[in-house]
Amino acid sequence: MAYELQALIGSLALLTVAAAEVPVARVVPLAQGLALIPATPALLAAFQVDGGERKSAGEGGFAWHSEGLERRLAAWSKAGPIACVEAAYWGGRGTQRAAVWADGRVDLGPLVSGEEESFPPEGSPISQALRRIGARTEEGQVDEFATVGLDAHRSTRDWEAAG
Question: How many domains does the chain have?
Fold first, then answer.
């Protein structure tokens, strides 16, 4: 079964304010006071119009980032941390990327887990990013990813529909 996600994650309050600046942004509440904005094609196009071209993925980077998105992340993260997350899985194998913006700059990462790699003792890149923005694993849950509910939908498009 496939799983694919590209999104911004932060506090519900912060992302609600951020989304008000970008009409195509959809805020989807998660557990523990967090929320997600799916990185849909319309959202990414809005950031490109906002200024700048798409950036090169480079070593561990995100192919979907643009200069416009990074300017917004720098501004928004002055009010609280925001995680950029990406996952792509098929048949139990795949990749994850995560980075956290705080105080106007990249504060964590980008963290990358390749297709053939096991997660380090600290957890997956996405769980580490979630932990950095305040998520905590609850009893009966495997990790922060499951605790906040990122397993509720299987694709960025499904998250958009939930918003």
Answer: 1
57: closest CA among 80, 88, 27, 34? 88
54 vs 78 pLDDT, higher one = 78
For residue 36, which of 139, 143, 133 has the smallest C-alpha distance?
133
How does pLDDT run across 59-68, given as a tens digit for each residue? 456 777 778 8
- 95 touches 48 (CB < 8 A): no
Task: Tell which residue, 68, 82, 101, has the closest CA to residue 16.
Answer: 82
Q: Are 128 and 122 in contact (CB under 8 A)?
A: yes
Quick one: tokens of 117?
Answer: 């790699």
Token reading at 161:
């529909």
Summarize pLDDT for 64-86 with one digit per residue, the tens.
777 888 889 999 999 999 999 99
Contact yes or no for 63/84 (Cβ under 8 A): no
Rounded to whole angstroms, how far apart are CA atoms 22 and 17?
Answer: 10
Domain around 42: 2-162
pLDDT, position 143: 82
Sheet with 28-29, side-by-side order of all strands: 28-29, 34-38, 2-11, 82-90, 93-102, 105-113
